[in-house]
C-alpha cells in the first residue's frame, strides 16, 4: 500500500527560500547561487519525506514563486508585455510576470488571487485570441532528474489542464478561454510523454472536480484524459481532487480513463461510500486521510477504519494513502517548537509529522506492530478533548445571550452618511491608506529586542511612539485626508490580535507561504476566545492626539482571524467565528469611547473560506456577515465603519458585501483594472467604495497618469461622492522610497481629479 504526499512546503523549516529569494531580488545573490540553494532545499525536503516513510515523493511542487506561474511558463502562456523575442520562460521572466519589474523594465504584474478557499495566492493565467502554446520551460524535467539521480522514487506533480484553464481569465472581452483547450492539451501531451520515460506515477491536480465544473470542461474531460493517459503510457496518471467532495462530478471522475484517483476524505469524508459502490476494477484509489491544511493530529484509529473499509471493497493492493491535499498549507516540522506549551504541542502535527502518520497507517494495515504509537495517539486526542483550557464558561454565557437585534445598526446608511459628513468634512475623493506602513529591519529589531528582554516595556513603547510621530508627520506632509498610526507594534494583522486574546497559542517556526517570498505564521486557535483587555486603543489614541485629521482605528475582523489561523476542529466554524466577533466588538466599542471616529475592521478573508460549490455559499456567507455585523453594530451613527478586502474573487458575492453594512469598503482593484467595480454597480452597492489604485504587491511605483487612468475608469462606474482613493492593501512589505513616491503620485492624481470634478459637480447641482 503506497504512501505519498500531494506536495510539501517550499519555504523550508526556517524560511530558507524566503532568504535566498529576497537576496536575489536585492542583487546581493546571483542566479547561480539561487538555483544552487534551491537544489539543496528540494533534496532536503525529499529526504524528510522519505525518512518519515513516504514511498512516492512529489517533484514539481517546489517553486521559486508559484506553481501556477511555473505552469504558465511551462506551456508558454507568457503575456506579450513580459516576453522577449525567442526567449524561453526562464526564472527572471517568471519574476517579471509576478512582480512587474525586471531590471529597469516595468509592466503591470499579472493578477493574483486565492488558491480556491485557502490563504495561498496564485498568479492568474491570462488567455487571449490567437495565443500560441509551446513547451517553454524544462524546470520540471530538471527537478525530476535531480530526484532520480539522488535515488528518490519520484512522482511529478503539476496542475491539470482543466484546473489551469478554469482558474485563468480572458483579457479580451467576448473571448472564451476554453477555445484554447485543444492546443493546451497538446503541450500537456508532450510534457507527459517526456515524463513517462523516467517515472511510474504522474499526478495531475484537478481540484476543479470538487467545484461547480464549467460546462465546457465537463463536455471534454473524458476525451482529454484519454489523450493524456495515452501520452503518459506506460506511466500511471493519478488525478488528484481536494478541498471538497466530487458530488455531481462523481460519475465523471470514475469514468476518466486514468490509473488512479485521489479524493479528500478530510474535507468531504461522506463521499467515500458512494465512491466505493461504483468503483471500477483495476483502478487505484488514493485516500486523503491526513489533513494537509490544519495542524491537528490525525485520529489514527478512525483513519485506519476508513482505509480498511476501502480495502475490503476494492482490495488493499488498489489503495494508496495520502494527505488530503498538498502540505504547502502547514509548517514543516513541529520538533522545532521548543517553546510551545507541552500540553498543546502534544495535540499537533506539522508536515514531517503528517508524513509519519501516513507511515503508521500503512504499517497498521500491513499488520505490523503499532500498538504503542496508536495508544499514544489515542491519549493525545483524549487529553485535548478533555482539557479545561478548551472551554470557557464566561464565553459560553455570552454566546447564549446573543440575539439577532444586537447585530443591527440603529440608523440607515443615509442617516449615518449625513452625521459622518458633518463630523469629518472630508473633501471629494478622500485619500487614505489601508493601515500598515513599511516594517523596516529597524522596527523588527526593536520588537525582537523587547521580546528578548533587552529593553524595557517603557523603552519599547517610547520607540513605537517615535515611529508613530514620524508616520503622522509623513501623512501630514503628503496631504492624505484620513490617517493611520502605521501598525509598528504589529508583526502580523492576525497574530498581533491573537496574542492579546485567550484561546490562541503561537509557534516560533510555524511559517507557511502566502505568495512569492511572503510568509505568514498562523496562530493556533485551540479554545474558546475571550478579550481580557483593550488591544489597540492606546496606540490609535496616541496617534490621534498628534493631528487634527481623523486617524483610523485598525482592527482585524473575526472572519479573517478565523480563516488565517489554524482553527480548532472540535466545534462548528460558525461558533468559533461568533466568539471572535464578540471579542473584537469589545475592541470597537473601546476605540469609539476613546474618541476614534473611523474604525476599519479588515475582512480580507471573507471570500476565501467559502465552500467550493456555490450552492453551499449561503450558509457560510450568512454567518460570516453576521459575525462582521456583530463586531461593528454597537457604534453610534457618527462613527464611520470601514472594511478592507483583497486578492479574492468577489464578483459573485457583492450583494453579501452590501449586507455587511460598512460605511466604506476598500478593495483590491488595480491588477484587475477596476473590473470588480462593475459588479458593485450591478447590485447598486449603497455605500462608499475605495477601489485600490496602487498594486502594493509589486515594487513598481505607479505614475500619476496610471493612477489617474484607474480613477477615470472608476468614475465611469461609481459617483464621485462615494469614491475613496487608496492602495490595494497595507504597505508593510514595501520600502519607504517606494511608499513616498507612490503616495505622492496617488495624492497628486486625486487632487487633480478633485479639481477637475468640482466645477462640473457645482454646475450640475446648480
TrEMBL record:
Catalytic reactions of this protein: 5-methyltetrahydropteroyltri-L-glutamate + L-homocysteine = tetrahydropteroyltri-L-glutamate + L-methionine
EC number assigned by the record: 2.1.1.14
Positions with a binding annotation for L-methionine: 434-436, 487, 602
Recorded GO MF terms: 5-methyltetrahydropteroyltriglutamate-homocysteine S-methyltransferase activity; zinc ion binding
Chain sites annotated for binding 5-methyltetrahydropteroyltri-L-glutamate: 15-18, 114, 119, 518-519, 564, 608
Active site: 697
Record note on cofactor: Binds 1 zinc ion per subunit.
Name of this chain's protein: 5-methyltetrahydropteroyltriglutamate--homocysteine methyltransferase
Species, as recorded: Desulfurispirillum indicum (strain ATCC BAA-1389 / DSM 22839 / S5)
